[in-house]
Amino acid sequence: MDRKRGAYPEYTLEDAIATIFLLRTPLGRKQIAEKLELGEGTVRTLLRKLSNLGIIGSRQRGHFLTKKGEELKVKINESFLDPIGVSVDGWPAFAIIVRKPPEFKSIELRDEAIKFDAKGAMILTVKNSEIVFPEDLRPLKETYPEIVKKLRNYEEGDAIVIAWAETPAKALKAAIHVAVIMKENNLPGELLEVVR
Known about the structure:
This protein has two domains: 13-76, Arc Repressor Mutant, subunit A; 79-186, Gyrase A, domain 2, CATH 3.30.1360. The strands form two sheets. A five-stranded antiparallel sheet has the order 3-4-7-5-6. Strands 1-2 form a two-stranded antiparallel sheet. By secondary structure, it is of the alpha+beta class. The chain is built from eight helices and seven strands; from the N terminus they run αααββαββαββαβαα. It has helices at 13-22, 29-36, 40-52, 67-79, 106-115, 145-150, 168-182, 189-193; strands at residues 56-59, 62-65, 84-88, 91-98, 120-127, 130-132, 159-164. Helices cover 41% and strands 19% of the residues.
């Protein structure tokens, strides 16, 4: 019986999506591993899978999105936009604008972010062109005006996920996780191939 040696590298759908977002500019495997807090073996496996699916290519300058990868990113952006780095009470955080979300319970989504290593999360909505807490329609700008200044391209009815954590990588993946849960029925099939 043949046995493979060593631990099998594992990555999540959130790691794959984060990698696609990170590859706006070419990056090396080590840079990706550092930004996502993954082992280099895991990143090697993830990059190989993305490459085999034709989503990324590589050159001396690093890995990059192919035409197919760029098209996939456009499809992802139909569900949610690229994460925006922000800060919440000194914690590293990321905000993601989720397009036309289904009905949601912000407490349940916040709990999902926490299960995914976030320290906390806010799930907001856009109402009357303003980012508000859905429970009481209190504007985000009253509490976090600096975050509101960084957010652009949101539309009426969009949701905005903001997750914060001990590290930027954990905050990024927690925010992506909540966006994935909200839009799981709209994710492109080729994206799901990455984790099969």
